[in-house]
Amino acid sequence: GSEAASEHGQEEEEEEVEDRLKEHMDNLLDKSAKARQAALQGLRLALSSRTLSEFLLERRLTLADSLEKCLKKGKGEEQALAGTVLTLLCLQMGSGPEGEEVFRSLKPLLVSVLTDSTASPSARQSCATALGMCCYIAAADLE
């Protein structure tokens, strides 16, 4: 009895986590920079505290598109958070074709922010970390 109740509680917790993640992903497209930053912080916390690869597998391209918008249009803190979330997404996707696909789509933008002298130091540092980690984890091309 208690094992079944425990399992049921875990399923409810997983659903709650997934609902919060979906909400954070929706909020990445908000007009308000504060709302986008809060969503990025929520995603960062979730991706760094549990394995969510199954949930992310079918949503990776949507999330990558949203992160791309945050990196392109955001400033400073938003870009830094987007770089961190991208790093965590690559870690969650791993070295398979899915991780490589996410990395390949965002690599030019990471390089662009990294080499942009007008971008904030924290954004550039975050993009440099994302580029290095994602390259290490997901780049199929050895160069």
Q: Your description of this structure?
A:
With 143 residues, the chain is mainly alpha-helical. The chain has a single domain (1-138), classed as Alpha Horseshoe (Leucine-rich Repeat Variant). The chain is 82% helix and 0% strand. The chain has seven helices and no strands. The chain has helices at 2-27, 33-49, 53-57, 60-73, 76-93, 97-115, 121-138. Helix 1 runs antiparallel to helix 2 (33-49), helix 2 (33-49) runs parallel beside helix 5 (76-93) and helix 5 runs parallel beside helix 7. The protein is globular and about 55 Å long. It starts with a helix and ends in a 5-residue tail after the last helix. The model has no long low-confidence stretch (mean pLDDT 89).
Summarize the structure.
By secondary structure, the protein is mainly α. It has helices at residues 2-27, 33-49, 53-57, 60-73, 76-93, 97-115, 121-138.
Radius of gyration: 16 Å
Level-2 CATH architecture: Alpha Horseshoe
Terminal-residue CA separation: 55 Å
Number of strands: 0
CATH class term:
Mainly Alpha
Question: Uncertain runs with pLDDT below 50, 5 residues or more?
Answer: none
Query: What string gives the helices and strands in order?
Result: HHHHHHH
Q: So what's the overall shape?
A: globular
If helices are DSSP runs of H or I spanning 4 or more residues, what is the number of helices? Answer: 7
The number of domains: 1
Helix content: over 70%
| Main sheet makeup | none
